[in-house]
Design brief:
Pathway: Carbohydrate metabolism; tricarboxylic acid cycle. It comes from Xylanimonas ulmi. This is succinate dehydrogenase. One of its GO terms (molecular function) is 2 iron, 2 sulfur cluster binding. With about 270 residues, this protein is an alpha+beta fold. It contains 10 helices and 7 strands. It folds into 2 domains: about 100 residues, Roll (Ubiquitin-like (UB roll)), CATH 3.10.20; about 110 residues, Orthogonal Bundle (Fumarate Reductase Iron-sulfur Protein, Chain B, domain 2). About 30% of the residues lie in helices and about 10% in strands. The strands form 2 sheets. It has a 5-stranded mixed sheet with strand order 2-1-5-3-4. The chain has a two-stranded antiparallel sheet with strand order 6-7. Helix 7 packs across helix 10. The model has no long low-confidence stretch (mean pLDDT about 90). Bound molecules: iron/sulfur cluster and FE2/S2 (inorganic) cluster. Iron/sulfur cluster binds next to helix 5 and helix 7.
């Protein structure tokens, strides 16, 4: 938003913000916010904080759709505040609320711990092959003392052999790797209204991202976490709200469907 908006005659937008102190009930506060065609929801919240209500609390960092921290509900729909312009709402105004399916810490700032715990639960990193169990029938190996080699004698890790991928191998997971953990799909998911323990679209999409990576060997570990848990992949009914909400073009609904099929042996 242009810095000069507050000093000139501009259109104003009705912005209602859901506010909440810890331990108290939510309440609405409404502000008339000047805007132009470039004004984002995040700009509008900044204007309120700078000109009307300094205590208004909300998260942001990059202002460019990268960090994933500015998610809010606008008229009931999860969006990135920094990437959503308000001009299209000039007649209806907007109601800005905290992300669904997360506890409110204050105003629009929500607790992300549960979301991140579910993400960690699918081991969202590159895993080595499962360790072979030790063979107990073999006699113990006698280790002969050897002369300690100098640093130059250590064989160099063949980095290229370990990490090289063909364009096709990268393409297999590239779309899913665009996730910025913004939680928009998690807020949009209707299953979480009823099954609070559901792993959720972002974590499952991230699990698939690694499963589809030719360098990763963790598919078995992740499938145990997702398929042998009734709240893992099974509650999803393929409504597709997650995919429609995603600002990065990730397709969590397809990732979940693929995981369900794989778990059923398909
Ligand atoms: S899948 Fe999309 S909507 Fe969900 S957390 Fe990742 S970037 Fe956000
Ligand atoms: S502020 Fe970083 S994604 Fe919006």
């Amino acid at each position: 938003m242009s810095d000069d908006l507050s000093g000139e005659a501009h259109e104003t937008l009705r912005v209602t913000v859901m506010r909440q102190e810890p331990g108290q009930a939510p309440r609405e506060e409404t502000f008339d916010v000047p805007f132009d065609d470039r004004t984002s929801v995040l700009d509008a919240l900044d204007w309120i904080k700078d000109h009307a209500e300094p205590s208004l609390t909300f998260r942001w960092s990059c202002r460019m759709g990268v960090c994933g921290s500015c998610g809010v509900m606008v008229n009931g729909r999860p969006v990135l505040g920094c990437e959503t312009t308000v001009a299209g709402y000039r007649t209806s105004g907007i109601t800005v609320g905290p992300m669904a399916h997360a506890a409110v810490q204050r105003d629009l700032a929500v607790d992300t711990d549960e979301f991140l715990a579910k993400l960690r639960g699918v081991s969202p990193w590159m895993l080595p092959p499962p360790a072979e169990p030790p063979t107990l029938t073999e006699p113990p190996t006698v280790v002969e003392p050897v002369e300690t080699p100098g640093p130059t004698a250590v064989p160099a890790l063949d980095v290229l052999a370990v990490h090289t991928q063909t364009p096709g191998q990268v393409e297999a997971y590239r779309g899913l790797s665009q996730c910025i953990d913004c939680m928009l799909c998690y807020a949009a998911c209707p299953v979480l209204d009823d099954v609070a323990g559901f792993t959720g679209p972002a974590a499952i999409a991230t699990a698939r991202r690694w499963d589809l990576d030719s360098r990763d060997q963790g598919n078995e570990v992740r499938m145990v976490a997702l398929a042998e848990n009734e709240e893992g992949i099974w509650p999803c009914t393929q409504v597709g709200a997650c995919t429609r909400a995603c600002p990065k073009g990730v397709d969590p609904a397809r990732a979940i469907r693929d995981a369900q099929r794989e778990a059923m042996g398909g």
